Amino acid sequence: MEDKVRDALEGIRTYLQADGGDVELVEVTEEGVVRVRLVGACHGCPMAMMTLQNTIERMLREEVPEVVAVEAA
């Protein structure tokens, strides 16, 4: 599952990099929880949690149905 998550994050990364940000995969748990770190312009952005939930989590769950949640690390 980790490889699927990495591949999906590559597609999401394009959107974040367009605004000067990025995302790093920290871990994928056996339970299906994905932990990521927002970096660049995304780190500390007031909209970071919305981006995490409304964009990253939504897109990951569409592409990798085994993902049950996405959390900031």
Structural class: alpha+beta
Rg over CA atoms: 11 Å
CATH superfamily annotation: Fe-S cluster assembly (FSCA)
CATH architecture: 2-Layer Sandwich
Strands ordered across the widest β-sheet:
1-2-3
Shape: globular
Care to describe what's here?
There is one protein chain. By secondary structure, the chain is of the alpha+beta class. The protein has a single domain (2-72), classed as GMP Synthetase, Chain A, domain 3 (2-Layer Sandwich), CATH 3.30.300.130. It has helices at 2-18, 48-63; strands at 21-28, 33-40, 69-72. The chain has a 3-stranded mixed β-sheet, covered by helices on one side. Helix 1 (2-18) packs across helix 2. The longest helix is centred in the N-terminal third of the chain and has 17 residues, at 2-18. It is globular. It starts with a helix and ends with a strand. InterPro entries: FSCA_dom_sf (IPR034904), NIF_FeS_clus_asmbl_NifU_C (IPR001075).
Task: List the SSEs and their pairings.
Blueprint: H1 2-18, E1 21-28, E2 33-40, H2 48-63, E3 69-72
Parallel strand pairs: 2-3
Antiparallel strand pairs: 1-2
Keywords:
GMP Synthetase, Chain A, domain 3, iron-sulfur cluster binding, 45% helix, FSCA_dom_sf, globular, alpha+beta, NIF_FeS_clus_asmbl_NifU_C, 3-stranded mixed sheet, 73 residues, 2 helices
